[in-house]
Sequence to fold (309 residues):
Amino acid sequence: MRISDLKTNFPTPDGIVRAVDTIDLSIRDTETFGLIGETGCGKTVLGLTIMRLLHPAATMEGEIIYKGKNLLEASEAEMRTIRGREIAIILQNPTTSLNPVMRVGEQIAEAIRLHQGLNKKDAAAKAVEMLDAVRIPSPSQRANEYPHEFSGGMKQRVMIAMGLACNPSFIIADEPTKGLDVTIKAQIVELMKEMTERKAMLLITHDLSVARELCDRIALMYAGELVEYAPLKGIFESPLHPYTRGFLGSLPERGLVPIPGMSPSLIDFPDGCRFHPRCEHATEVCRREHPELVEFNAGHFVRCHHARS
Fold:
C-alpha cells in the first residue's frame, strides 16, 4: 500500500478539523508498520480513512494505492468487496465493537457469509475454526455464547478472529492490546505475531512495548502529521525528533518522564513546527517555519529543523 499526500478533514462549528494532514508512507508486503502517537493525533482516523469508514461529512484528498487502485476513487460497491476480504480492520475496544445481542459465532459467521459467500452451516463451522485458531477453549461451545460471557482478553481474540476470518492480505489493527493487563497483552502480541506472519499490517498503538515486539518499521504521528519514521532499530536506538525521544523517555525502563504540555488543537495548529511549544530545543526558525519531512539517513525520515542523532 502506498499513501500519498493524504488529507482527511471534518467540518465543525468551530472550524475545520485537520485530523490527517499530508501523510506520505508506504507499507510493504508482509511488513508490520507501526503508527504511534498520543491520543487525538489522528492515528485512528488514518486507519478509518483507508477503510473509507468515515462520516459522510468528512473530506478526503490524496491517494491510497492498494494493488494499483486508488481507494479514494473506488465506489462504495467496490469498497464493500475490498473490506473484510482484502483489507480488514481489528477495532479497538471490543466491548463496544461487538454486538451484545448476537452470539459470538454468529457475528464471525456473518462476516464470512458476506465476503466468502458460504452458506449458513459452512460459515458457522468456519467461525468455530477461527475461534479455535485464536486459542479460545471449547470453541464450539463458546461460539454460542454472548460477548458479555467473555473476558476482555477473550473478546479481543474474537475481534482478531473476525478480522482474519476472510484471510485478508492487509490488516489494520487499532490498539489491539488497549485495556489488557500485562499477561493477557503478552498473549495477544504472540497471537498476532503468529496470525499475521505472512500479511501486511498497519498497527495503530500508543504502546511502544507492543510496537517493539511486532513492528518492522515505526512512524511517530503528532498533530495530524508524521514527524519521524524509520526501521524499528532506528527509532529505538537513534531517534532524531524531540517528540520521539520524549515518547521513548516516557517508558518505565527509561524513567517515566512525561512530555511537557499538551498536543495542539487539530483546528488551530501553531505556526512553524507543531511541536515547538513543547520542545526544549526550539529556536526562532522552529516558531516561524514548518519543517518538511526529509530523509536524514537511509530509510530514516524526520520532520525537524534541528534533527540530530
User: Anything to note?
Assistant: Residues 120-133 form the longest helix (14 residues). The domain at 2-86+170-302 is CATH 3.40.50.300 (Rossmann fold).
